[in-house]
Amino acid sequence: MSLSEMVNLPTAEQFADLLAVNKAIANGIFDIAKLERPYQLPTLNSFAALQGIIRLGLAKNYLQERISDSTGTVTQNGTIFACSGGTRWNQFLLEVIGIDREIVTDAQGNELTTVDAAGNTIPAHSVTLAFRNSIGDYQFDRSAVSNWEASDLRCWLNSNDDKGIPTHQKFTYTGDTAFTVTAAPATIVKVEVNGVIIPQYSGWTYSNGTLNLIATPTEGATVVAFYYQDGSKYANQNPGLLAENGLDEELQAVLAYRKSRTSGRDIIDRVFLLSEAEVGSLGMDTLLDDEEYGNCYPAFYSPNQATNAANTNRIRTDANGTAKSWCLRSAYSDTYAWCVNTSGVLYGGGASDSNGVVPACVIA
Question: Are residues 211 and 178 in contact, defined by beta-carbon separation less than 8 angstroms?
Answer without folding.
Answer: yes
